[in-house]
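Hey,

Quick one before I head out. I ran the complex with molybdate ion overnight. Inputs first:
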Amino acid sequence: MKIKAHTCKNSRLIGSIGTLPHDVLKVMPNQISIDAWQDAVPDGEIMSNHSPHSCCSACDREDVEKLPLTDLNEALERMANLVQPLNQAKKLQLGKTLGRILAEDVKSAIPLPVSNNSAVDGYAVRLNAMQGEPPYSLPITGRVAAGDNPEKIAPDSVCIRILTGASLPDWADAVIMQEDTTLSEDENQASFPFIPEKNANIRFSGEDVPKGSVIIEKGAKIDTRHIAIAAASGLAELTVTRPIRVALLATGSELNQPGAPLPPGGIYDSNTPMLVALLSQPHIDLTLHRPVKDDFETIQSSIASLAEDHDLLLTSGGMSVSDEDYIRRAVAAEAGNFEVKKIRLKPGKPLGFGRIKDCIFVGLPGNPYAALVGYLLFAQAALSHIAGMANHPQPLKGQAAFSTAKGGKRLEFVPVRIIGESPDGLPKLEKIGRGGSARLRPLINADGLAALPISAEGVREADLLDFYPFHSAFEL
Ligand SMILES: Nc1nc2c(c(=O)[nH]1)N[C@H]1C(S)=C(S)[C@@H](COP(=O)(O)OP(=O)(O)OC[C@H]3O[C@@H](n4cnc5c(N)ncnc54)[C@H](O)[C@@H]3O)O[C@H]1N2
Ligand code: MOO
């Protein structure tokens, strides 16, 4: 794991990060960086320029309690409108494109299959040579294996030995499987118990991919399938968007690095490693800021510096109503605009997002489950719009195998487990845990999250719910 140190212009340095005398780390793209995080900040000390409770002119703060709540769908729409997709792209060797985002449609210059060829090991036959009653006996006048040029076969042949994938001579009408064939003792004659259908066991040129057709659309996140089809089409390079420059800043005077002794009142920082794990993707170039204490000036200078040269800035904590929740004030002090100030969402109500100059900003709430839900809904949406990704994650449907005593005034995301299948084939979902945006344990047994709609009466058993599974059966 390579980590590049990156000097933060505005933040003053307190302490050191491992052996690197900087408060900001660059985690290079294409490298899994959860371990980088741990190497980076091993001593448990977090950053502050000031004594706790320091304040400043920005204390003329907005009344966070009275900020308007925005519904999830409207907030997602506003995110889509806020973000400008990246327009910088470059060609990359195919083998280096896994997880990157395709910047333009890719066409195949050749048809796939390249030529008509045999789908089985057997015998290619000319149908008009098979007359009368079975068995049909034909002279074998050649052999083609995969890789052979079929033009070596005499054009007046009526039967040849052919192997799977071998190009088919023009005169051949069908291939009969080896299992349906009897050979003469000298192996010069093949006899068949039936006349095959025309074109049997032939794979035709272009039947998978016609020449010149689009094989991968712009905005695809390149996975195993794309690598395979691009290689089959003979492409050695693909054009991908440049990595998204993402900065991560956790705030909270109570935060300590796992492994460090825990002082009274302290907790371990779980949001940083959780978010680093989520952001450790090839299309992301992650800058990890050292977690900072709840101190206005430190937070402001860190935000100012990070917003300058990143596409997306994620912060954790400090979004709520207290006098030590500084993120909103720090963003305002940097002439940032909140497009959405709070969300009608549980957990995640204090989440807000907007723009600081050219940088999209998402302020995640500090509670760990709220930070996760906020990331999955909004940071992920921001990332996919910035990258110009074609497919945005959509929920599936599931059936509630539980009921709630009453409804809620916010759309609520709860961890759920699949416990069976409904008669119409939907996953039956059991709610796990008793709620609480500070709780992580229910997630460990969950198969995904379900959204409980805003309603007076609550969820009834067998209600249809939006279901966001964590994993699918085949991950590519
Ligand atoms: N009077 C009110 N209080 C709160 C409200 C409210 O509307 N009125 N909203 C609650 C909701 S909802 C949430 S969510 C939290 C959000 O608070 P902040 O975003 O300001 O986050 P903090 O206060 O900094 O921390 C909240 C909680 O999370 C823990 N935390 C913070 N960072 C981390 C981290 N990196 N790793 C693990 N845990 C973390 C922190 O210790 C607190 O327990 O506000 C409610 N309050
Ligand atoms: O966002 Mo909060 O999580 O609803 O407790």
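Helices lie at 34-40, 72-82, 224-232, 271-279, 296-308, 327-333, 368-387, 441-444.

Talk tomorrow,
K.
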